[in-house]
Amino acid sequence: MVQLSKRAQNLKTSPTLFLVAKAKELAAQGHDVISLTVGEPDWPTFDIPSKAGIEAIEKGITKYTPANGTVELRQAIGVKIKNELGQAYSTKEITVASGAKYIVFAALQMICSPGDEVIIATPYWVSYPTMVELADGVPHIVECGEDENFKITPEKLEKAINARTKGFLFCSPSNPTGLLYSAEELKALADVLRRHPQVVVISDDMYNRLVFDGTTVAPHILQVAPDLRDRTVVVNGGSKAYSMTGWRIGWAAGPEKLITAMADYQSQSTGSPSSISQHAAVAALKNCEPDIAEVVKKLIARKDSGLAEFASIPQFKVANPEGAFYYWVDIKACLGKNFGDRHIRTSKDFCDILLEKFFVATVPGVECGSEGFMRLSFAVSEETMKRAITRMKDFISQLS
Prior knowledge:
Belongs to the class-I pyridoxal-phosphate-dependent aminotransferase family. The protein is an alpha/beta fold. Helices cover 41% and strands 14% of the residues. The chain has 2 domains: 6-44 and 290-397, Aspartate Aminotransferase, domain 1; 47-287, 3-Layer(aba) Sandwich (Aspartate Aminotransferase, domain 2), CATH 3.40.640.10. The protein has a 7-stranded mixed sheet with strand order 2-8-7-6-5-3-4, with helices on both faces. The chain has a 4-stranded antiparallel sheet with strand order 9-10-15-14. The protein has a two-stranded parallel ribbon with strand order 1-13. Strand 9 (317-318) and strand 10 (326-330) form a beta hairpin. Helix 4 packs parallel to helix 11 (275-287) and helix 12 runs parallel beside helix 14. The termini are far apart. The model has no long low-confidence stretch (mean pLDDT 96).
């Protein structure tokens, strides 16, 4: 009989992917399921990168590439980061992998030794703590609720740092809240980090182009604290802004020593990223600014439409997203209620019933480290979101 390792025994399934599978199972049974779980745009990959992917196949650009990605793509990434953040990176300071998720995973593998702590504020993306654990690290979870606008404060960051702290991992705009750190807030965090030079900053910038205030790029810690460059890892990829989720392309820029280690780790694990996807990503980075601008307009319209619908549910409090494509919904007024013979104690109870009885799939806040909330993706049509909210109203009307 196969004996699994302790790592395998402790491994947790991705909550969002599990919910996606459950939603698909119900749909296969004939139910009209509305899935608001996975962070995936409902619009197709833009035409230019799609045609570049076809071109790669037709021209035979289908072989192994360097483990850290093609020089052409790393150069294009360097130009993108220079334009967005004002920081210049050489191709040796950039690595490409099979998705930004793997980039974060590789970075944690390369900075963590057993027992090292990585600071993660709630609410967090569901995979962060498990990825730290898989690197033999310890997730140091910092509770950040409505009083902090769901963002870590300088005081809480300072208190969390100790001799074992090796990293600080955060996402702005946030998955799951859609809120972002302002330049002033990032400057205050940087003031703390300067006092602790052993702390590596991992900035997950996957949604940094999907911002709703009229600017094109979310504020970044390196814009206000360029002196932290030698210990900051800038993470991004094609999945969100370019709707290239299935192409599996992500990248990181950072200090050459760490980036080289990540690339070596990639070479021993995933090998090289897809040559076809990399060719498409180059085309996306060079040519898709107008497409991103149109996507942002679409997301703002969807955000505003959904918020207007949610206004008719007094039991919910919904944070107004500043970026990304998520609603972070306070459902605490529904906890402690009953649905028939089922008592709703937790956000998981609420979301389970919402899926099983009303066929709307959402992510319970407990999976993001914050009980009493749920996350919804509004990367769906306005009509789809309206139908989902109507079902939520029906659910709530039956609570006692």
